[in-house]
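Request:
Um, any thoughts?
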Amino acid sequence: MALLFLYGLFWAEILATSARYNGFPTAELWVGQGGRSYQWRRLIVSLVLLNLFPVLWLGVLYAWVVPADSGIVPIIIAATASLSVFGIIRIYHAVVASEENIDTFYTIDEQQTFDIQGKGKLRTCWSPVVPGIFYLAVFPGAAKALGWLL
C-alpha cells in the first residue's frame, strides 16, 4: 500500500512537470487549432509514456522489488523504489523534446510558445535518457538491496 501512495504522489509531480511539454493537447485537437498531426503524435506518446508506462512500471516494482510484508522496512523500500518514477519524465523529454525529435512533435511556433528546450538550448536525446535510465535502474536496485540488508 505504501508503494501505491508514494508512487501516486511522485506520479502526480511528474504529470505537473510535464505540463511545459503540452503533451495532452486535447483542447487544441478538439477545436482543430495548430498542427494536428504534431498534436496527435504528442498525445499518443504522452499516453504511452506518462500514463501506461508508469502503471506497468508500478507492476514491476510490486512484483519484484517491494515485499508484501507490513512494517517500516517495506515502507522504506517502497519509498526508495518509487523514486524511480522521476526517470520517466527524463525519458519523455528525450522522446518528444530532444534536438533529434522535437521537429516531429512540435511546430516551430509551438517550440517557441512552450519554450520546450529552454533559451536557445537544444539537447541531444542522450542527455536526458542516461539519467532517466539511471533513475529507473538505480532506485529499484537500491530498494532491493535495502530489502536484503534490513
